[in-house]
Amino acid sequence: MIKIENITKSYGTGASKTEVLKGISFTIAPGDFLVVLGASGSGKSTLLNVISGLEQADSGTVSYGGKDISSLSDKELTRFRRDQIGYIFQQYFLLPNLDVDKNVKMGADLAGNKDYRQVINAVGLSGKENKYPHELSGGEQQRAAVARALSKKPRVLYLDEPTGALDERTGRQVLDYIVKLQKEQGFTMVMVTHNANIAYMANRVIRMNSGQIVEQYENAAPKGAYEIAW
């Protein structure tokens, strides 16, 4: 169980201080697929960064199985993220001097996963293993980033606009694979997206506005990637 209690987060000081998260509280059950919706500037990406341990909240707690990660040292937090968290960023963050195979292998090595090339094939990058990031399109770079995160076999997978750079066909393919893998492996998944249709795939949905949660609901019968509108 991941428990988020009264999280606040702001940037800047004095007159330029901006409150981004304003007392956010909710829980995430093991195996949940949670989608966080909201307009640009609503705080959803900042929330993702805080609950995944990438950023520190100003106040409040984020607990995994009763352990507050905000109390961890930098070394302990790094170990926690390495051992439990997978993260798919908007900006890809592939290492430019490594080809697709080696970028994905970096994540796989953390989990001792020697079958990582299956993930590369599943996200549609078969034949691109020896290509470097600058030789790939934006969509291909995103797929490589997805493969890297999944090859790590995380306990919790965080995704920040994972289909933003993908066309509809590829976006559906990648989402379909991620959800199937989640069901097989049982990891928890939290996704920030601007595509409200993807919310129909999740079992839980949170909608944010101006740094606060304005709606929470559950989907009794989540849809598949090829059943939703795009």
Question: Can you give a write-up of this model?
Answer:
- This protein is an alpha/beta fold.
- 30% of the residues lie in helices and 27% in strands.
- It is built from six helices and ten strands; from the N terminus they run E-E-E-H-E-E-H-E-H-H-H-E-H-E-E-E.
- The protein has helices at 44-51, 74-84, 100-111, 117-122, 138-151, 168-185, and strands at residues 2-11, 18-28, 33-38, 59-64, 67-68, 85-88, 156-160, 188-192, 204-209, 212-218.
- A six-stranded mixed β-sheet has the order 6-7-8-3-9-10.
- A hairpin with a 6-residue loop joins strand 1 (2-11) and strand 2.
- Helix 3 (100-111) runs parallel beside helix 5 (138-151).
- The longest helix has 18 residues, at 168-185.
- The radius of gyration is 17 Å and the shape is globular.
- The relative contact order is 0.19.
- The mean pLDDT is 91.
Number of contiguous helices: 6
* Low-confidence parts: none
The dominant shape is globular
Q: What do the pLDDT scores average to?
A: 91
The strands making up the biggest β-sheet line up spatially as 6-7-8-3-9-10
* Order of H and E elements: EEEHEEHEHHHEHEEE
Helix content: 25-40%
- Major beta sheet, specifics? 6 strands, mixed
Radius of gyration: 17 Å
Secondary structure: number of strands: 10
Short description:
The protein has 230 residues and is of the alpha/beta class. The protein has helices spanning 44-51, 74-84, 100-111, 117-122, 138-151, 168-185, and strands at residues 2-11, 18-28, 33-38, 59-64, 67-68, 85-88, 156-160, 188-192, 204-209, 212-218.
